[in-house]
Each structure stands twice: as C-alpha cells, then as structure tokens.
Write a structure and sequence with these properties.
alpha+beta; SH3 type barrels; six-stranded mixed β-sheet; 29% strand; disordered C terminus
C-alpha cells in the first residue's frame, strides 16, 4: 500500500500500543522525519514501519522499541538513487 501519499505534515504518529510518540515533519525519501522533540532533536523512522494511515500514522512496534530503533541522523539516499542523480538528463545508468 502507498502510505506515503496519505501522510501529511503534522500528523500524529502512534505506536502499536496506541500512544503518540511524535508528529510528522515531512517525508524524507523512504523515511518519515519527525518534528523536533523537547530537546530540539529530529528523528527519522522508515516508511516500512507504517501499518495504517487515518488521522494518525500508525506504526508496527511499541513506543519503547521505536525510540530504540529510530535514527537521529538523516538517512542517506540509496546507491541506485545516487547513481541516477549523477547521470545527465536523458542518459541511462548501466
């Protein structure tokens, strides 16, 4: 399912035990960048964790696991994306 197209800025993000643990800042490639926490830190979670989007973004793990596994640095683009970005317009990458 294409959850990325349903996710909007400032939607609450909810863990599998029903507690809100963040808000969407924006999509960042195949990750969701969360708004800054109380300490001024952004966090990123992979889109693959998303199980449902309604008025909230629901993820597949409990909050304590989310906070152990989220990233505090922006994800790097996949190698294929980097290679495609290096090619001049209209040139195929082999």
């Amino acid at each position: 399912m294409d959850f990325a197209s349903q996710i909007r800025e400032h939607m609450p993000v909810v863990c599998s035990n029903g507690k809100e643990f963040g808000m969407v800042d924006h999509l960042d490639g195949s990750s969701i960048k969360l708004t800054k926490d109380d300490y001024g830190q952004h966090h990123w979670i992979p889109l693959e964790w998303v199980t449902k989007v309604d008025k909230h973004v629901h993820v597949d793990r409990p909050g304590d696991q989310v906070m152990r596994e989220w990233s505090t640095v922006a994800p790097q683009p996949a190698m294929a994306d980097q290679m495609a970005g290096d090619q001049p317009q209209g040139t195929a990458a082999y």
